[in-house]
Amino acid sequence: MKNTVFLVVSAVVYISAIVLIALKIRDIVKYPDKYKHEELVAQGDKLVATKKYHIPFKSLSHQYGTVGLLFTLILTAIEALVLYGLQRWIFVNGSVIMFGTSVIGVICLFFLNIFIGMNVIPLAIKKPFFEVSTRDLFNVTGRNETYKRTYILLLITFIIVFPFTILGTNNYAYYNENGITYSKFFQLNETSIDYNDIETVKVNIHHDNSGNVDVFEYIIIYDGKEVNLNNPNTSVKGFTEEVFEIHKYIESKGSSAIEITPLNTVDCEYIADKLNDRQRQIVNYIFEGFHNG
Predict the structure, then answer these.
(1) Is the pLDDT of residue 76 over 90?
(2) Could you tell me which residues are beta bridge partners of residue 257?
(3) How far apart are CA 184 and CA 7, in angstroms?
């Protein structure tokens, strides 16, 4: 239910934002004089005439534009915390298994925030400093043209990146003492897996084409499906603490079989040379199989 509400609310926000930005663009095109701000531009000209810029900046506009970059970074940090909060406090009731999609969502928002932080916010603050900071954003003449280009690119970027952010937030997995729960991108309800329903666990190390260690895999098989729990979207070398905890939970139930691909010489050398003591302890424990007899 909570996934459905989240996706519906997000769709409303998405459509509403598109409409509002489109209306803003129409207003800019229909009433260009409204956005020329000639008095403000004159104040900006005076500032440019009296202030010097420093190396390595190519103009005063470039120098002042660094404040827009600061806006961008602050917005992205705030949004990252909001996305984390949505997953952690609304969806997740346990320890998160990171699949990397939330990070992708934050990266998408960063590109959107470039336009908001460096264009939209400075244009909205009608002060000479920020008027100057927006002058070299685009190769256009006139403040009204800067407005138009800004909001057109904002609309295009928003249409593209916002769905990735929302779907990435809706795609998560977590576990607790009862089992594993996950939600896929378009999933309206969570899927829960009881540890007793896990038929088989496959443990192995995947190698690249050169025979080198690539990915440590911890694959659970349930209801004919296979899922690698060991951070499949990252280049983790070793098993995560989360996978180790899940292994202990499955082990304690005593209802699952385990299939282990034996370590070869390359694997053993990698474990000995590349992993720290804690990582080696986890890998050795898991590769020993279940310890419940």
Answers:
(1) yes
(2) 200
(3) 12
